[in-house]
Amino acid sequence: MKIAILSRNPNLYSTRRLVEAAESRGHEVHVIDVLRCYMNITSMKPEVHYKGQNLTGFDAVIPRIGASVTFYGTAVLRQFEMMHVYPVNESVAISRSRDKLRALQLLSRKGLGLPVTGFAHRPDDVDDLIKMVGGAPLVIKLLEGTQGIGVVLAETKAAAESVIEAFMGMKANILVQEFIKEAGGADIRCLVVGDKVVAAMKRQGKEGEFRSNIHRGGTANLIRITPEERSTAVRAARTMGLNVCGVDLLRSNHGPVVMEVNSSPGLQGIEGATGKDIASMIIDFTEKNAKSGKTKTRGRG
Q: What does CATH list as the number for 2-96?
């Protein structure tokens, strides 16, 4: 097979592992910087060009599109889909998961466990908004934030009001969520490939830190998840329409709640914590499913 990996940096761990796994199976792999691509959008013969070359003959594309380039990255991926190249994750599914508000609304519609979440536009709605999510302490999140950036824990009502009003004053879109204290600064990252959780790890935030992101000094350990957690992760992935993703769960007093569905999960932390060859599982899934024109999106909305 001829496989394109859309990644801005061929030296990233996840990109390198995917290349190694594909080449070890005899596939031809090309790492393509999505921002260097340009497109010919025409009715009969859509094209993607890269460094002066017309990209043709690809059987599959594996998108590793960073959050900061979602708009352009999904446009390039959509062009590959128009060229009948099989996408491991489809453009519409990536866009759906990257819009945190839309993702939560879709997960809610499917009855998945979620932290109580509020969303508002006007500063004079703040008092009722705080009551809606159960009062302080609460978590305030920028809709555009990633890797724990733009996430604030407000421990008192006064602090919550101050932070919310500050964000609103900057015209920023924010979510206000209940704080799941019983999670103890830990979450569970479930790696879903196809319709299976193939690996899971517990991420624990450093002392005094409620965010568990490894990028922020958190640690990762192998964990055994419950059947309910496994089912929740698979249903969340299916709702987004993603074939490969990381689903972040918190263990609350009322069962697992979904915090986020990540369409480009990093492989280094979970491969290190579990000892599993996740990259080869993704390539195996690609081999079994890559058929020309097979781009019917799972999930809705």
A: 3.40.50.20
